[in-house]
Design a protein that fits this description.
Layout: E1 2-7, H1 14-25, E2 36-46, E3 49-60, E4 63-71, H2 74-98
Parallel strand pairs: 1-2
Antiparallel strand pairs: 2-3, 3-4
Helix pairs in contact: 1-2
């Protein structure tokens, strides 16, 4: 799957991008018709608490799936966003098979 990484207002290191790429690639086991994806990495400093946000957009035929997660680290946020996307992909696939 072709995946674009966007780190907003900072430069993400190679280890982080490899980690997220590996996690998102595993999503293809749940639905193999994913065309491409985008990942946005952001720092949130709201209320004096430094949190990280990971947003994942996956483009599938006829739709775009989106998930977002906040956590103290990018790795934890990526895990949350990937888990939310996994549930969406399974639901989307079941809906496609029902038609």
């Amino acid at each position: 799957m072709k995946l674009q990484m966007h780190s907003i207002h900072f430069e993400a290191d190679q280890q982080l991008t490899d980690f997220i790429q590996q996690k998102v690639d595993k999503l293809e086991t749940f639905y193999d018709r994913v065309v491409e994806g985008e990942v946005f990495l952001k720092h949130n400093n709201s209320d004096g608490i430094d949190t990280k946000t990971v947003e994942i957009k996956l483009f599938v035929p006829g739709s775009t799936l989106y998930s977002e997660a906040n956590a103290p680290s990018f790795e934890a946020a990526a895990d949350g966003a990937v888990e939310a996307m996994r549930r969406q992909l399974k639901r989307y696939k079941e809906k496609q098979l029902a038609h």
